[in-house]
Design a protein that fits this description.
The complex is a heterodimer of chains A (384) and B (251). In chain A, strand 2, helix 2 and strand 3 form a beta-alpha-beta unit. Helix content of chain A is 38%, strand content 20%. Chain A has 384 residues and is of the alpha/beta class. Chain A contains 14 helices and 15 strands. Chain A is globular. Chain A folds into 2 domains: 185 residues, Thiamin diphosphate (ThDP)-binding fold, Pyr/PP domains (Rossmann fold), CATH 3.40.50; 111 residues, Rossmann fold, CATH 3.40.50. Chain B is an alpha/beta fold and 251 residues long. Chain B has a single domain, classed as Rossmann fold (3-Layer(aba) Sandwich). In chain B, strands 2-1-3-4-8-7-9 form a 7-stranded mixed beta sheet, sandwiched between helices. In chain B, strand 7, helix 8 and strand 8 form a beta-alpha-beta unit. Chain B is globular. Classes of the chains: A alpha/beta (384), B alpha/beta (251). At the A-B interface, helix 2 and strand 3 of A face helix 4 and strand 6 of B.
């Protein structure tokens, strides 16, 4: 039995890389329910967590799974679940509770074709807006989109770091291709990785308020069993963690839940850019689509169009500032995504009337035809 | 030439796409035969689960719907309450019925919905590739219980018939097996009875089939049947638990 996190160079599936990323990040509790194409993450952790004195529990459904990882998180253990679209739909109530409790945890969504049961064994990027707005109400949220098994490892680690730093459930939005693809994955020794742990309070018992916070807008944790007798609830609550359903308290709390992400967006937003300077058209993509559109970029360049490439590694919070700045420098944006235009609408919102926006939709189960993407790039370039 | 057996009219002409040795085909046929014999087909609505038998719509020659995972008894309730003139059945696997759908089956039974539930128990999740089910036996290795199901950690397998039998409302509850021709003939009798009561609008009827999953058990079809006989039947005891329509049964 391997008693520690593994490291080295491996040829493994994306889902396995994700599970190993969770282990490297310090996750020691997994609660989940089988669902294609995410089951391999649960299967891997069923094997690995007991070797590390961690806990693996297969629950009766996704509702219990999500509730349990909140419980584990609140008890002080890094926790995770992994599912696909239909499972997220079941988890949404508890995801909202997690946002309100400010419970750090990671939710992996290996997306498939949707809506409903959709395409269980095929891919999609159809849950992008669900990750942002799925649970009712206003709250800030973080979603990271891996394009490869390597990134599925890296971003799972990062998701845990963000969840611990900003105290909220963080999404990793993969898809069936990234989850089931087998590629080279380099796993560094744990001590070479940046691992962030939640901030525990050093205040004396009498001075500790569970939801009081400084400029970071992120409250400190108290360790369960240390005598703090702290309380949490999904109801609107004051700094003591007790329900206070006054307008004043609600305004303060909901604004803080949104602002703690909004005001830290620069720390959270990760992008990859190529040939942006001097570009006429910028192709914006994320996840697996950023790989399938490479031939289209090459073809458009052969036709003499200056195409820049912007990959959103962080999709939420949305890089509004970056898009606004770019909009004034280019003819427009082309956004291929495996849905009928979810992130594209965000680009359109930020580009406004300054730059053209052209969404290249695909509902899933296939990938964009190169010709369709090239045509969109040409249309945007020539509309200058 | 004398025809002594034909394909039931309540099955389509399609060849089953279930794995070799899987008992779904037998269960499908028994239900279809009962629909034929009781002349219920044209007023029958079936609800398929999420799992291997999500494809039941291809094989049953009546109106069919697929429910979200575990919710078939709730969908069936909606159908039957909206159209009391129709007959409604659900066909569900063990993950669907006693994991994610535990609340729906218990409450549909408790309300005494006038529907039939056919429950396939093969102690594993088939469609998603062999994960642990709520009916997986102690010690049994699956992809999510790689060290064997530890009942101290995850509890004992759930016996659906016994669980539902603790409720007052259900009308008929029986567990049958599909491991030999004799057992299949007995199973047919239970299916017929459930369907008869369904036709008469008597109440909630439930038949559990002890079944096999050779593919995910890693056994050939004959070994799977023997394994089920030796391991499943001692835990999932065959028999009738409730028959309010029988002589001496609760009226």
């Amino acid at each position: 039995m391997v008693k520690s996190s593994m490291h080295g160079v491996f040829f493994i599936q994306g889902d396995i890389a994700c599970a190993e990323g969770a282990i490297a990040a310090g996750c020691r509790f997994f609660g989940g329910y089988p669902i294609t194409p995410a089951s391999e993450i649960a299967e891997r952790l069923a094997l690995r967590l007991p070797q590390l004195d961690g806990v693996f529990v297969q629950f009766e459904d996704e509702i219990a799974s999500m509730a349990a990882i909140l419980g584990a998180s609140w008890a002080g253990v890094k926790s995770m679940t992994a599912t696909s679209g239909p499972g997220i739909s079941l988890m949404l109530e508890n995801i909202g509770l997690g946002m309100m409790m400010e419970a750090p945890c990671v939710i992996v969504n290996v997306q498939r074709g949707s809506p409903s049961t959709g395409l269980p064994t095929s891919w999609g990027q159809s849950d992008m807006m669900q990750a942002r707005w799925g649970s009712h109400g206003d709250y800030g949220s973080i979603s990271l989109c891996p394009k490869s098994p390597q990134e599925f490892f890296d971003l799972t680690v990062k998701a845990f770091n963000y969840s611990e730093k900003y105290r909220l459930p963080v999404f990793v939005l993969a898809d069936a291709i990234v989850g089931h693809m087998t590629e080279k994955v380099v796993i560094p020794p744990v001590d070479e990785l940046e691992i962030i742990d939640r901030k525990y309070t050093t205040r004396p018992l009498s001075e500790y308020l569970p939801y009081a916070c400084d400029k970071s807008l992120v409250p400190e944790f108290a360790k369960a069993g240390n005598g703090y007798r702290y309380h949490t609830t999904g109801l609107t609550h004051d700094e003591r963690g007790y329900p206070d359903m006054s307008e004043e308290c609600h305004i303060k709390l909901v604004n803080r839940l949104v602002d703690k992400i909004r005001k830290n967006a620069r720390d959270i937003i990760l992008t990859e850019e190529h040939d942006i300077d001097g570009a006429d058209v910028i192709l914006i993509s994320y996840g697996i689509t950023s790989r399938t559109v490479v031939p289209a970029i090459q073809k458009a360049r052969q036709k003499g169009i200056k195409v820049g490439y912007l990959r959103l590694i962080t999709v939420w919070p949305f890089p509004e500032e970056k898009i606004r700045n770019l909009a004034s420098r280019v003819a427009g944006f082309v956004i291929p995504e495996i849905n009928l235009g979810q992130v594209g609408l965000e680009v359109e919102r930020c580009a406004g009337s300054v730059a053209r926006t052209r969404i290249v939709p695909h509902p899933g189960g296939g990938i964009h035809r190169t010709g369709a993407v090239v045509k969109a790039i040409e249309e945007v370039a020539h509309a200058k | 030439m004398q025809v002594i057996a034909t394909r039931p009219k309540s099955l389509t002409d399609l060849q089953f796409t279930y794995c070799p040795g899987c008992t779904h085909g037998i269960a499908h046929r028994l239900i279809a035969e009962a629909m034929d014999e009781l002349d219920m087909r044209n007023r029958m609505m079936g609800v398929a689960p999420v799992g291997c038998s999500v494809f039941a719509y291809k094989f049953f020659n009546c109106d069919m719907a697929e429910a979200a995972h575990g919710r078939a008894p709730a969908v069936a309730t909606g159908m039957k309450r909206a159209r009391p003139d129709m007959f409604v059945f659900t066909y569900q696997g063990d993950g669907d019925l006693v994991a994610i759908g535990t609340a729906e089956i218990v409450h549909a039974a408790n309300r005494g919905e006038k529907i039939s539930i056919f429950f396939i128990n093969n102690a594993i999740y088939g469609m998603t590739g062999g994960q642990m089910a709520p009916t997986t036996l102690p010690g049994m290795k699956t992809t999510t219980s790689p060290y064997g199901r530890d009942e101290k950690d995850i509890g004992y397998p759930i016996r659906a018939c016994e669980l539902l039998n603790s409720l007052v409302s259900p009308y008929f509850i029986e567990r049958v097996s599909l491991l030999s021709p004799q057992e299949i003939i007995k199973a047919k009798k239970a299916v017929l009875k459930a369907m008869q009561y369904n036709k008469e609008g008597r109440g909630f009827t439930f038949v559990e089939f002890v079944s096999t999953c050779p593919t995910n058990w890693g056994l050939d079809p004959l070994q799977a049947r023997e394994w089920a006989r030796e391991n499943m039947l001692p835990y999932y005891k065959i028999g009738n638990f409730r028959d309010k329509g029988a002589e001496g049964g609760e009226k």
